[in-house]
Structure formats: C-alpha cells, structure tokens
From TrEMBL:
Keywords: Kinase, Phosphoprotein, Transferase
Catalytic activity entry: ATP + protein L-histidine = ADP + protein N-phospho-L-histidine
Domain PAC residue range list: 65-117, 191-243
Known EC number: 2.7.13.3
Entry-linked NCBIfam families: sensory_box
Enzymatic class: transferase
A molecular function GO annotation: protein histidine kinase activity
Domain PAS: 1-62
This protein's name: histidine kinase
Lineage, uppermost ranks: Bacteria, Pseudomonadati, Bacteroidota, Cytophagia, Cytophagales
Length: 273
C-alpha cells in the first residue's frame, strides 16, 4: 500500500521481487519483471547508460544507490522517478540483498524544469537590457546584479553584495546618496536619484537610478527591483543647452543695454536741437 514502486534484488542485481504498485504502473507481470534486462526496457533511452553506470557502481562498491530517471508507464508515457536502494548484509557482513524504491517525482521535476527555464529567460532578458539592473532585500541589501553591471563596473558579486556598491560611487556624492537611499528603503516607496558611477576604466558616468518595491500577496515587501540608466550624454546636452541659453540670455541683455544707450543718445540729440 505504500506509494512507491518497491523492488528487491540479490547481491548481483538480479531482481527477485516487485510490489503491486510496480505491476500497476508498468503493466508488467511478476514473471515479466523478474530478471536483469527488464529494467533497461522500461528506462527512457536517454537515461539507460547513466542509470547502468550508477547502479553498477553501487553493485561493485556496496554504496547506497540514488538516481533520478524516467520510467515507461503501461500506457507508453514516461514519468520521472527517484530511484533509491540500500544494501542488506548478513551477520558475517556479506552483502546479500538490495532493497529499493522508485518514488514518483514527475510533477516536482517538471515544475523545477519550468522554473529553471523561466529563470534562464529572466537572466537572458536582464543581461541584455541597456540598463544596469539589480535586486535587493527589503532592508536594501543588494544580492543580485545583471551582467551589464559587472561589465560596466568591472566588479564581482562578492565585492558588491549588501552595501558594497558604495565602492563605485564618486566620493563627492556618496554621503548624500547613502543618506537618501537609507531613507528611501525605510519609506518602502518607489524612488529615483541621479548620481555618477565609476566604470572599470576609472571614468565616471552619470546614471538615473530607479527602484520599485515588490510585495507579496499579503502586501509584505519582499524585494526591490532597481535599474541604473546611463544619462551622461543627456546631461551633457542639457548642460550645452543651458550654456547656450545662458549665452543667448547674456547677448539679449547686452543688446538691450546697447539699444537703451542708443535711445538715450538719440533723446539727448533731440533735446539739444
């Protein structure tokens, strides 16, 4: 009645027993199941060589057996199982029997593979966006950066974990940035700030940093998602525009003064006549 497929072999690996659940799942009778070759026939072709290697090692050494593989069901479909076995020795210490089980882990395996696929997709997306990206815990300790961050800063995760990011900040701005960020973490609301970050070449570029809080179903803050967008060229253009505007404004002022002087001169000429 236990949920696993149960089997027993002798010391050589020859199967001598299977429980009813094995028969129900595989569709094999006891007569069909007993013997050395049946096992391979039920294993997925891609898992046979690996399974034989692991099982052969256990038979040769007496080490506990554990492996994940796919078994064919009676309907021809395959499901993932966790195969485990332990040896039994007699009073003289001689290995005489193996007791094994196959536990159905198909649903967990598929879920894990789907999660792994989503993580790979996320990593691909995060590593190919234009921004430097990062994630932090609720208290603001950063635990993940995308590839763009490492490419730009030339740092490692070990250097940047937690508050390590202050190492790449400009010394003229770091105090104000830290003060602002600490208050922002505590407030738990979206925030943004612009400051310079040092690249791997030692040069500083300006970045617009934005962070948004992520909440769970109970509205508890679970992490922060942040991006750093390079705005250096934009700031240069703004500075150029501001400079041009200031020059234009100065020219207008000087021109107005010049016109005012000309008007005053004309007024004096008219008064003299």
């Amino acid at each position: 009645m236990i949920p696993q497929l149960v089997w027993i072999t002798d010391a050589t690996g020859f199967h001598t027993y299977f429980n009813q659940r094995w028969i129900d799942f595989t569709g094999y009778t006891l007569a069909d199941s007993v013997g050395p070759e049946m096992w391979n026939n039920l294993l997925h072709p891609d898992d046979r060589a690996r399974a034989n290697k692991v099982w052969g090692h256990s038979l040769a050494t007496g080490a506990d057996y554990e492996i994940e593989y796919r078994f064919r069901a009676a309907d021809g479909s395959y499901r993932w199982f966790l195969g485990q076995a332990r040896p039994w020795r007699n009073a003289a210490g001689v290995l005489t029997t193996w007791f094994g089980t196959c536990t159905d882990i198909h649903d967990q395996k598929i879920a894990a593979e789907q999660l792994k696929e989503r993580e790979a997709e996320f990593t691909t997306l995060a590593d190919n966006v234009a921004q430097l990206s990062w994630m932090a815990r609720p208290d603001g300790n950063i635990y993940w950066y995308n590839k763009g961050w490492y490419d730009y800063t030339g740092t490692t995760l070990a250097e940047m974990t937690g508050w390590g990011w202050d190492k790449v900040h400009h010394p003229d701005y770091i105090d104000s940035v830290v003060t602002f960020v600490r208050n922002a973490w505590a407030a738990g609301k979206p925030w943004e700030l612009t400051f310079p970050l040092r690249g791997h070449d030692g040069e500083y570029r300006w970045f617009l940093t934005r962070a948004v809080p992520v909440h769970d179903e109970q509205d508890q803050l679970v992490r922060w998602l942040g991006t750093n967008t390079d705005v250096t060229e934009m700031r240069r253009l703004q500075d150029q525009l501001q400079s041009s505007y200031a020059d234009l404004e100065a020219k207008v002022v000087f021109r107005n003064l010049e016109l005012e002087h000309q008007v005053q001169a004309l007024q004096k000429q008219v008064a003299a006549k």
